[in-house]
């Protein structure tokens, strides 16, 4: 998936939702923009692993104006080999999590810029390698 913009402006949804939802499939999310996922528990990009233990890269993308998490990943009891690199994550309201990793089997987070969030990077049971992320 590459070179698209997902704008959630004006959408109202209950519960968790994502601008881009990538589930139990390998691949790359490259040069995408997600914005205005802010109608409840919005996530810019959400990646889920599972039984197939996919390998996913989220790179060179812009994620902003969300109210829960900019880039979120969870293996959901299976596996997930995740690389998050070269992204700009910004939440000008000063809340939420820039990059959230929950039970990701392997996560490499490098050269991202996270600003304006309550938490820059949050991990929960996720082995993570951080380099150059600020």
Describe this protein with a few key phrases.
5-stranded parallel beta sheet; mainly beta; 134 residues
What would you say this structure looks like, in words?
The chain has strands spanning 5-7, 16-23, 27-30, 33-37, 41-48, 55-59, 62-66, 69-74, 81-85, 88-90, 97-102, 106-110, 113-115, 119-124, 128-131. The protein has a 5-stranded parallel β-sheet, with no helix packed on it. It has a 5-stranded parallel β-sheet with strand order 2-5-8-11-14, with no helix packed on it. Strands 3-6-9-12-15 form a 5-stranded parallel β-sheet, with no helix packed on it. The protein is mainly beta and 134 residues long. The mean pLDDT is 89. Helix content is 0%, strand content 57%.
Biggest sheet features: 5 strands, parallel
- State the low-pLDDT regions, or none: none
Class based on secondary structure composition and strand pairing: mainly beta
Indicate the radius of gyration in whole angstroms. Answer: 13 Å
Strand and helix order: EEEEEEEEEEEEEEE
Classify the beta-strand content into a percent band: over 45%
Whole-number average pLDDT?
89
Spatial ordering of strands, largest sheet: 1-4-7-10-13
How many H/I helical runs?
A: 0
Helix fraction by DSSP (H/I, runs of at least 4): under 10%
Strand tally: 15
End-to-end span in angstroms?
Answer: 25 Å
């Amino acid at each position: 998936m590459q070179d698209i913009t997902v704008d959630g402006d004006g959408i109202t949804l209950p519960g968790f939702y994502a601008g881009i939802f990538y589930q139990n499939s390998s691949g790359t999310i490259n040069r995408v923009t997600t914005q205005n996922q802010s109608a409840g528990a919005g996530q810019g990009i959400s990646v889920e692993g599972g039984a197939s233990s996919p390998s996913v890269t989220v790179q060179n993308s812009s994620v902003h104006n969300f109210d829960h998490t900019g880039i979120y990943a969870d293996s959901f009891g299976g596996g997930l080999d995740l690389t998050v690199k070269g992204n700009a994550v910004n939440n000008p309201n000063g809340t939420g999590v820039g990059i959230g990793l929950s039970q990701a089997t392997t996560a490499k987070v490098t050269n991202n810029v996270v600003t304006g969030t309550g938490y820059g990077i949050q991990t929960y049971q996720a082995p993570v390698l951080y380099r150059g992320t600020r």
